[in-house]
Design brief:
4-stranded antiparallel β-sheet, globular, 39% strand, Alpha-Beta Plaits, 26% helix, alpha+beta, 2 helices
Length: 77
């Protein structure tokens, strides 16, 4: 199983709404509210690149209140 971290910037005042929507997604295993330039960090666990793509492109980009995302895909070294 692979994983990715998604750094999320929300529209002002929408952090809780986005947080709750992300937790409903089966591939999202955890979401944290953070302070600083970003608002949320979500962990995605996925079985395949197709599953990752569907989560990132078809689901996360359409969450109401998300302004911007940046995805960090974890790799083994």
């Amino acid at each position: 199983m692979a994983l990715a971290w998604v750094l999320i910037s929300c529209e002002p005042g929408r952090e809780r709404d986005v947080y709750l929507q992300l937790l409903e997604m089966p591939t999202v295993s955890e979401v944290s509210v953070v302070y600083g330039e970003l608002d949320l960090v979500a962990r995605i666990d996925f079985e395949s690149e197709l599953e990752m793509s569907k989560t990132l492109i078809e689901k996360m980009r359409h969450v109401d209140g998300v302004r911007k995302t940046e995805t960090l895909i974890a790799v083994e070294v």
